[in-house]
Amino acid sequence: MSLITDNRYYKPLKDTYFRDAYQNSPSEYYKEWMAHKFTHSMKVSDAGARIIEMTPELYSLDEKVKDEFISALILHDLGRAFERDSITSEMIKIDHGTRGAQELVKWGEKSLNIIIPVMLHNKFNEGFVTYTDEELKAEREYHWLKDEEREFVNEYRAKFLALGENEKKNVIAGLYLVKDADKIDNLINANDMIVLNRAPKEPVVSDEVIRQFYGGQMVRLDARINFIDHVFCWISWIHDIRFEASKEILRQEKALDSMKANVIRAHQNISAEQIKYMEDVLDKAISFILP
Description:
The protein is an all-alpha fold. It folds into two domains: 179 residues, no CATH class; 101 residues, no CATH class. It is built from 18 helices and no strands. Helix 5 crosses helix 12. The protein starts with a helix and ends with a helix.
């Protein structure tokens, strides 16, 4: 834990930024939202520190680089503070990865090992900085951004492209680390999402979800129809995991077994035949993606 608590951003985030964001709000929901996001950020940081310790190519990096990676882990969801109105709790349409990176730059942060992982951790891939101009323009996530967000992404894409090859490798390693650690905590804590989910509980996986999942893709949000489609979407995040240590942590935590048990528990009102179908499709999916 010392990798995290010794980091220069830990105390400001814990004692000032998140505290002020939720203590000064009249909205109880917003306070709970921000408190949850701080807890999530600490769990993601812990998962990331475990990945570093278990991965020789990360553990052997310069201490300054590793500390910057820890900063990115701690700060990855900084933009969530701007995603809801602190008075009304109403959602505000922003890209929280880009918004968090913009806030970091306002703070005076200059390290691309921090800014780019925060900016891109919620995107499908690192293509926002490695694509050609034509490929980037064809990426639909890029067009979901507001104009000012796209301008910021373009500015930091140019800064990334100006780096030396080793520096680029470090930035991408930090991005993969943050994305993996974020997925680990979200998968371990998917029980809450299962309980809260309001999708129709028809226990049949949609054909398009099956195609994407077994095709090695992360299931697109717009492919989901049924409750179990959402579960396949979460499990499919493992397709995007880059470090073997991340998969080992999921095995150690029995994350997918717990998810399966809670999915079945949430469907106790359906027939025994339907439950057997769900158990079989989930067992097959788990064996496929995390053998």
